[in-house]
Prior knowledge:
Largest sheet: 7 strands, mixed
Strand content: 15-25%
CATH class: Alpha Beta
Number of helices: 5
CATH architecture: 3-Layer(aba) Sandwich
Number of domains: 1
Order of helices and strands: EHHEEHEHEHEE
Low-confidence stretches: none
Mean pLDDT: 93
Amino acid sequence: MICYGKAVLDLEEELVDAYADVFSAPPWNEDEETIRQFSARLQTDVRRPGFRTALAQSPAGIDGFATGWITAARFPADRAYGHVAAQLGPERVADYLVGALEIDELAVRAYARGHGTGRALLAELTADAPGSRAWLLTARKATDTVATYRRLGWHELDPLPGTGNGVVVFLAPGHPAAA
Length: 179
């Protein structure tokens, strides 16, 4: 199921619970403050152009979710964006990321992993990505996550020489620059 814009705020408590369940575990080890920040970010993120959330639900509640929006022409500098810009340089950021669907969060509870939940969430969220252009980043230290994206056909962008850092940038399998 896809929710657009502010409608997702009706599920905020459940999303925060799923986020906390997934990201308080290794390798993320996020604390209560970071989880609180996700809740606050959600209030702002729902107003971004093209904001959407894909949900995997069962009788147990939200098994997983993915959020995304269209990356703005003025590439942000907060959060991990500075690392992305440093690794890719301004030309690749403009060509590959600006105007593309940016996957911000993908969270699948442990009990729902290994059943295609993450794959389904990504497919649903990116189904109408502009020109099949979608991207995401993850932490290099999250080796299982990096391996999962590779297995799902996401294409890792090589950093410019000498710019590698703690993030890995991936393009969706259908992204024109992923070839």
